[in-house]
Amino acid sequence: MKRSMILLALGLCVTHTLLAQSSSWKIRYKIFLPGNENFSIQYKTGVESTEETTGYITDGNDIKSTVTSIKIKDLGKKFDYNTYGTFKGRSYLYADVLQSADKSKLIIHFWPIKNYDAAQRHATKKDSLSADSAAITFNGLIENNTFYFNLNKREYLYLNSAAWHAGPLTMPFKVYLGSRDKVHTNNVAADINAGLYIGQKWGKKGFVDMPAEKDGKSHEGFVSLNGIIGFSKISVAKTDNINDNTNEGSVLGFSPGIGLGLHYDSFVFFLAGGIDIPISNSIAENWRYKNQPWLGFGLGFSIFK
After folding, report:
1. Each residue of 141-150: b (16+ CB within 10 Å) or e?
2. How far, in Å, CA of 152 to CA of 104, rounded?
3. Which of 82, 97, 104, 85 is nearest to 33 (CA)?
4. What are the distances in angstroms from CA 53 to CA 62, 64, 294?
5. How far apart are CA 151 and CA 208, in angstroms?
6. Are 89 and 77 in contact, with CB atoms under 8 Å apart?
7. How is the chain split among helix, strand and coil, in percent rounded to 5?
8. Rounded to two decimals, what is the model's pTM?
9. Whole-angstrom Cα distance, residue 135 to residue 116?
């Protein structure tokens, strides 16, 4: 028991690649309408442009022309979503976001409506717009306008987000919760293993304008649910069999399972469970932990984030 606790403690302290170098896709942010008390959605129509005007000056017999440049910029203003039928009845919309180069704004790129059912959810019975018209109006609105949040200095704007993610996985220590002989339980194994995980994560990401920082700053916290597919080296000794009159050696094992991840910025804590299925039955036929559930723990840290 003492040996098991020591190995388990070491497993929790080892920094490895578990969920550390993950890849995410289909990231979506939930934008509540019309924002919140401190951060309201702003918008402006069009983009900044320059208009040139030509004037003429008479100097004796010469006529000289001068060119004057006038910058035209539509100032942002608070977006009143209730005035647009496509937004009525909606508490939130999905979007991609990007912090501006000067850190002062969080640009919102709303997802367009692609089908009749989605359009119908944006229209209410009181609207004169049909579902198809609502889709056209909404998509035109987001294409022809720029939406954004003004970021207050030193005050975080938190957005709900979700994404799919995947990456490499290693579980340096496993605790077998059961055994085929019902006697040797809670055994700790430290065999070599490698695999992959894929899953979805949900949480919040905060954006802020820090005056002392050159670039925009953000923090994120997520919970993830993942499926695991891996392979393990299984060391089988005579003392690990339910029958001592059997072979011993190392075999390859298939290790499916599920895992729960807690993520904060570059740090990851991972709890996983699964079973080890020996591929070679000639050696592991009587292995006491064959197809028995195990529990694994791990810590991860991404140095590339």
Report:
1. bbeeebbbbb
2. 7
3. 82
4. 20, 14, 77
5. 6
6. no
7. 15, 50, 35
8. 0.70
9. 8
Cβ pair 99, 106 in contact under 8 A: yes
The string of pLDDT tens digits covering residues 225-278 is: 999 998 988 888 877 788 765 678 888 999 999 999 999 988 888 899 999 999
Nearest-angstrom CA–CA distance, 263 and 270: 9
Q: What is the DSSP letter of 259?
A: E
Domain limits, the chain: 2-26+159-301, 40-48+72-150
DSSP annotation of 111 reads: P
Identify the DSSP state of 18: T
55 CB burial (10 A radius; 0-12, 13-18, 19+): exposed
How crowded is residue 244: how many other Cβ atoms within 10 Å of its Cβ? Answer: 9
Token readout for 166 is: 């995947």
Could you give the CA distance from residue 273 to residue 175 in angstroms, rounded to a whole number?
9
Binned at pLDDT 50, 70 and 90, residue 154 comes out as: very high
